[in-house]
Amino acid sequence: MNPVMKVLENPILDLRGKVPEIQVHAGFYDYLHKCQPTTHQQARKTNQSTILFPLQQLFTLALKEIPWARNDEEAQSKCQVILEKVSSVFRDYPEYSLFTTGHSLGGALATLFAFEAACLKRSEIPTLITCINFASPKVGNIHFSRAIDYLEELGALRHVRVTNQSDPVPRLPVRAYVNDCCLLCRMKNMYMHVGFKVELILGKRIRIKHAPKLETFQRNYLIVTSKRFARMCFNVAHFLVAGNVEALRYHSCLDYYELLRETKEQLLKLDLDEMYARNRYR
Asked: Which whole-number Å values give the CA distances from 258 to 5, 205, 261, in the listed order?
C-alpha cells in the first residue's frame, strides 16, 4: 500500500482559515476521480486495434467528424458518474436516505465519496449522509480528520467504521513517505482515522470510540505516536509468527460476516443519534 498523499484545497469554506489544505491518500483519490473513457471511446479503441493500418487512418479521419469521437472532455470520473446516478434517484424519491458502504478499498472510497457529497451540498442529495464501512484503511491526514469532524458537528455527515480487532489493514497506512524534519510536518503527514470505530471482538463486548479531535491529537501527539509504534511492532511480530496469509484471514469478508453474526445482538442496540449526542457532534 503506497502511502503517498495528495494535497487538496479544503472544500469547506468555513474551515479554510484554520485548515486551508487537506491531504488524502493519492491512490484512493485518483481511483475515484480518474476520468474513465466513455462507452463510445472504448468501442473506438477496440475497433482501432483490430483493423488494418491503412483503414485505421481512414477511420481516424472519419471519426473526427463524429461529436463523441472528437470531444474527449465527455469522459467522466467514477465519482461524477455515481453523483449523477444518485442525484437522479433522489429527484424521483426525495424521501430516501443516502448511505455509503464498502469493505477494505471500498470502505476507503465510501469515506471519500461521502465526504465529497456532503461538501457539495447538492439540492437533490439529502443534507445528512451516513457512511458505514468495514475493514477500511486510513484515508487522510489530521486536517482531513478535522474536516470530517466539522461536517459531523454540522449534522451533514455521520461516519462509522467497523473493524476486526485482529485485522492489520485498518492500522495502515501510518504516515506518508516524506522527508519531514519538524514535529508539525510529521503530524501533518500522519494518517488518521475518522468517525466512530466499532471494534468487533470474538466472545467479548464490542468497543466504540470516536477518532480524536485535532486539538486532542496535537496535545497528546507523543503519546499517540508511541501507541502507534507499539501497535506497528505488534503487527510486524504477528506477520512474522502467523504468516501473511493467516494475518490477512482476519481481513476477509467471511471473517467479518462471522463476527457480525456473533455480535448481532450488541450491534442492534446501537443508535447513531445517541452515539453522536453523547459525543456532542450534533
From this structure: 34, 15, 5
Name beta bridge partners: 163.
199
Q: How far apart are CA 127 and CA 97, in angstroms?
A: 9
Sign of the alpha-carbon dihedral angle for 154, 156, 150, 206: positive
Predicted structure pTM score:
0.78
In the prediction, which pLDDT does 255 show?
92
Q: What angle do CA 197, 171, 130 make, to 5 degrees?
A: 35
Condensed to tens digits (0 to 9), the pLDDT of residues 227-245 reads 655 665 665 555 555 555 6
Residue 142's nearest CA partner among 205, 213, 38 is 213
Beta bridge partners of 162: 134, 198
Give me the mean pLDDT over the 250-262 stretch. Answer: 92
Per-domain residue ranges of the chain = 11-24+82-278
CATH assignment of 11-24+82-278?
Answer: 3.40.50
The single-letter code of the amino acid at 159 is: H
Question: Average pLDDT for residues 115-138, to the nearest whole number?
Answer: 92
Examine the pLDDT at 14 and tell me if it is beyond 60.
yes
Q: Report helix, strand or coil for 85.
A: helix
